[in-house]
Amino acid sequence: MELYDLKIELEELHDGSDYRYMATSPDLPNLIVVGDTTEEVLALVPQVAAALIASMKAAGDALPETLEAREARAFGVQPRWSERMVQEELA
């Protein structure tokens, strides 16, 4: 199991889309998570990030340099715009 620190940016959408909030990460550029509430979006981020990282590794793609593996720590939710821990479980 590897843990990664990701900076998560959460924004409210005002474009008439079906969702109200979107999370992205400058550390993992392909990460986009949308939902109706901030809680929903932030709850989905670890799952989506783990799947994205696993697919990049499976394809032999290099992970972004800004994405750093950290020593094992518990997942913790912190205030918006701060680093969040994303856990990836490798099979």
Helix content: 10-25%
Shape: elongated
The whole-angstrom Rg is 13 Å
Low-confidence stretches: 71-91
- Strand numbers in spatial order across the main sheet: 5-1-6
* Strand-residue proportion: 25-35%
Structural class: alpha+beta
Number of helices: 1
Question: Helix-strand pattern, N to C?
Answer: EEEEHEE
Quote the distance from N terminus to C terminus. 9 Å
Number of strands: 6
Q: Please, what is the average pLDDT? A: 77
Tell me about the largest β-sheet: 3 strands, antiparallel
Architecture overview:
The chain has 91 residues and is of the alpha+beta class. The N and C termini lie close together (9 Å). The protein contains one helix and six strands. A three-stranded antiparallel sheet has the order 5-1-6, with helices on one face. It has a domain of 61 residues. The longest helix is centred in the middle third of the chain and has 21 residues. The C terminus is likely disordered.
In short:
The protein is 23% helix and 30% strand. It is α+β, with helices and mostly antiparallel strands and 91 residues long. The chain has a domain at 1-61.
Keywords:
3-stranded antiparallel beta sheet; 91 residues
Q: What is the topological layout?
A:
Elements: E1 2-7, E2 9-12, E3 21-24, E4 32-35, H1 38-58, E5 68-70, E6 83-88
Antiparallel strand pairs: 1-5, 1-6, 2-3, 3-4
